[in-house]
Specification:
Blueprint lengths: L1 H15 L11 H4 L9 E4 L2 H12 L3 H23 L11 E4 L5 H11 L9 H20 L7 E5 L2 E8 L3 H13 L7 E8 L5
Parallel strand pairs: 1-2, 4-5
Antiparallel strand pairs: 3-4
Helix pairs in contact: 1-6, 3-4
């Protein structure tokens, strides 16, 4: 689970930090949740509308289309719940929710293009720094996750702060290995490693 998330987030942030990107997929609203200039949109539609779309797209019966949708919805729900501990149906995860039963696809596109121009979604030096910090943290975590899947990584202006758990004699060796790997990541200017012993967690 931790490896999968680390790899996906590293690839996603590498693209998004270039700005002017549209990402269509699950969990983007979670992986980029602290980046203020990212507009997070959810598109919804009534079941009857969705059934009709699937019937036409896949050339299947109404019942078959309903079965496809139910299976797809359940898989999406379980996937995001298991990996990210979120319910992707929660409107609080999004900045904008559009019901395309009430408007055309073209209207929805126009609305998104209009909203993304709002001041709150413009890239600022502060929000770009947050994006760059997230990108660097993800790059470091991607390098470390095979060795320590539980590793936590944050970044601030080129300095990375790494936290993990070990016990006894492992602590010193793990801290050394983590520092050595992290220092090889382009953009890293400093490394702060904190290895917590199991006893300190009690």
């Amino acid at each position: 689970k931790e490896r999968y998330i680390a790899y996906i987030q590293a690839v996603l942030t590498a693209h998004v930090r270039k700005d002017n990107v549209v990402y269509h997929g699950l969990a983007g609203q979670f992986l980029l949740k602290n980046i203020s200039h990212v507009l997070k949109v959810r598109i919804i539609a009534p079941l009857e509308y969705r059934i009709k779309v699937v019937m036409e797209r896949d050339d299947v019966s109404e019942q078959k289309a309903l079965n496809i949708l139910r299976r797809s919805d359940e898989e999406r729900y379980r996937w995001t719940k298991k990996l990210f501990l979120i319910d992707q149906r929660d409107s609080g995860l999004y900045d904008l929710v559009l019901n395309i039963d009430k408007c055309t696809v073209e209207n929805a596109v126009d609305t998104i293009c209009y909203v993304v121009k709002f001041k709150g979604f413009q890239t600022t030096p502060e929000s770009q720094k947050a994006m760059d910090d997230l990108y660097l943290a993800c790059e470091v975590k991607e390098r470390l996750v095979d060795m320590k899947p539980d590793v936590e990584v944050n970044a601030d202006g080129g300095t990375v702060f790494i936290k993990t758990v070990a016990h006894g004699p492992q602590e010193e060796n793990i801290a050394r290995d983590i520092r050595r790997i992290a220092e090889t990541v382009p953009g890293v200017k400093g490394v702060n490693v904190q290895v917590l012993g199991l006893a300190s967690l009690d």
